[in-house]
Amino acid sequence: MASLSQLTRQLGCIRSLAKSQPFISLQARTISTAYSAKPEPAPLPTNLPKQFLSQIPDRFRPHEPKKLKIYPPPPSARAACKDPIAAVTESQLGQLDPTGERKALFDYRRNPRSVKPGDILRVTFKNGDPFSGVCLSIKLCGIDTSFLLRNELTKVGVEMSVKVFSPNVESVEIVQRTEKRKRRARLYYMRQPKHDMRSVENIVSNYLRQKSAVTGQRSSRGKKR
């Protein structure tokens, strides 16, 4: 029985293989796009009447080239004034310093007798009391040239920045020059207690006393600081 069942099982497998399988045809449809060149517009006839031009699109109408009027460029102001900033600075210096004394007094690069850092200066103002102190630095900046003075008032260090060409500045006097040339252009280290010169009132009072003896005029000590 076992052999018969095995035989029938094998025959069943052969029978299933012998069955005709249906043929499935796969039909694939392909779509392709053919690119063609853009057709050029047909040229217009030369003897076309003008009344038909309104029916033709504007881009196809024959246009005559327009004649544009060309104007010459305006005269350049740069040719007349190549450096306007320098011209404005010179005009302002001519009004504020017509003699050029203040410019030469603080031009330490060209004038050997000019003010140098470390000198003691006395500045007199048109409105206010004069101020004296040691010059810590000089800032050369054209019309904005300034210098920094330091003094001690009531045992308190006071600094004042003075504009050289300010209309409020009446005069700048060199009270005492430094003994030797400083190695630095900015003497900010004199703010420290070790290098501070303290008050310069005694030096300024001696200078005013000698000046009054030479000129024969009495100095107003009540106005000085």
The coarse silhouette is: elongated
Which consecutive residue ranges, at least 5 long each, have pLDDT under 50? none
Main sheet makeup: 5 strands, antiparallel
pLDDT averaged residue by residue: 81
The whole-angstrom Rg is 50 Å
SSE topology string = HHHHEEEEEH
CATH class of one domain: Mainly Beta
Overview of this protein structure:
- With about 220 residues, the protein is of the alpha+beta class.
- It has a domain at about 85-215: SH3 type barrels (Roll).
- It contains 5 helices and 5 strands, in the order H-H-H-H-E-E-E-E-E-H.
- The chain has a 5-stranded antiparallel beta sheet.
- The longest helix has 17 residues, at about 1-20.
- The N and C termini lie far apart (about 140 Å).
- The model has no long low-confidence stretch (mean pLDDT about 80).
